[in-house]
Amino acid sequence: MITDDGRELWTSATGRGEPILCCHGGPGLWDMFGTLDLGSRFRLIRWDQRGAGRSEPSGPYTLGRMVADVDAVREGHGLDRVPVLGHSWGAQLGLLYALAYPERVSALVYVSGVGLGHDWRPEFKRNFERALGDRRARWAELREKDRDEAEERELAVLQWTADFVADGDRHAEAMATPWFPVNYEANAALSEEMRATPERELVEACRALTVPVLIIDGAADIRPRWAVDSLERALPSVTRVRLPGVGHVPWLEEPDAFRAAVLDFLPGS
């Protein structure tokens, strides 16, 4: 599909049920919801965000532009009002979209997001290094060198193993298949803009949000879950589900529990 500023986005609809629009993590990565199974009830609307994966490799990379792209995907699939499911950075993007267009979002599923503030990063770094264990030396070596494409993938897989409590190698390999170049420009630009947004502004905006929100946390996520507490407190209509013994990608580690949480929250047709 083509956005209003002429950028080509890859998008796909999987399944035949009710539509749910998915926003993947990153920034600068691509859709990894090919392993997401919500059963026959839902049709997954998936897409690669601009500059990444199978979408056109060009910006601009701003929060406003990314929100507009979410709306373009919704409109491109002929949807008036739709539930949105976002993971990690995509959870923040889904939240920003709901704040901008609440009349177009019937519900938000906020999966493994990092909340509204930025003081979680030091604890995350400590948890990450501890989770890497003896892989840390190779990860640091790759980080410091000029990498070819095979080494880029190796670095990502090493990094992603820390996001899981068990079977990290297998799950990280699944996330890296298929593999596309990471868009570091998009990652840097969007991360900087997010850090520049004061938490108090987002809290005030969330207090006025009438869209029902489900927050799903893996209790063992290396991103500290207390970082999401201010978001939970600010939302007028919120449900929070914590999955014990689960890391950053709960639909891979506990697919049944994850699916049950989503299905219980979203109203049936």
TrEMBL record:
GO molecular function: any one?
aminopeptidase activity
Q: Which residues form the AB hydrolase-1 domain?
A: 19-134
Query: Single Gene Ontology BP term?
Result: proteolysis
**UniProt KW keywords:** Hydrolase
Instruction: Output the Gene Ontology cellular-component terms.
Output: membrane
For this protein, the record's Gene3D superfamilies field holds: alpha/beta hydrolase (3.40.50.1820)
Identify one Pfam family in the record: Abhydrolase_1
Does the keyword section mention Hydrolase?
Answer: yes
Under the heading InterPro entries, the entry gives: AB_hydrolase_1 (IPR000073), AB_hydrolase_fold (IPR029058), AB_hydrolase_sf (IPR050266), Peptidase_S33 (IPR002410)
Family, as annotated: Belongs to the peptidase S33 family.
PANTHER family annotated for this entry? Answer: AB HYDROLASE SUPERFAMILY PROTEIN YCLE, MONOACYLGLYCEROL LIPASE
| Protein name, UniProt field | Alpha/beta hydrolase
What organism is recorded for this protein?
Amycolatopsis orientalis (Nocardia orientalis)
